[in-house]
Amino acid sequence: MPESPSAYTPLARLVLVMVCLAIAGSIGAGVHYYAVDLPQQKSVQPPDNGSKLFYQCVICKSNCNGKPDIYNCLNECDLVC
């Protein structure tokens, strides 16, 4: 019994396999992104770039106004800042 000729050439089979692997890889990468990368990105806090410390120093120094020992108060604020 003779073999039936293949419907696809070897090059067409290779292209079909490569397309299937590309689709499988894209699906795997998407699952990994939603399962691993996205939750990590959402849990990261953005840096404050020192703005919180700056405002604490401003508040400390403004609280020193009107105190009789203003220089000691400012020195304490500089130690904190």
Helix-strand blueprint:
Elements: H1 10-43, H2 51-63, H3 70-80
**Main sheet summary:** none
Average predicted confidence as pLDDT: 82
What's the tally of helices? 3
> Based on CA inertia axes, which overall geometry fits?
rod-shaped
Distance between the termini: 91 Å
Provide the low-confidence segments as ranges: none
Helix content: over 70%
Query: What portion of the residues fall into strands of 2 or more residues?
Result: under 5%
Number of strands: 0
Tell me the number of structural domains. 2
| Radius of gyration, CA atoms, in whole angstroms | 33 Å
How would you describe this structure to a colleague?
- With 81 residues, the protein is mainly alpha-helical.
- The chain has helices at 10-43, 51-63, 70-80.
- The chain starts with 9 loop residues before the first helix and ends with a helix.
- The mean pLDDT is 82.
Descriptors for this entry?
81 residues, mainly alpha, 2 domains, 0% strand
Would you summarize the structure shown here?
The protein is mainly alpha-helical and 81 residues long. It is built from three helices and no strands.
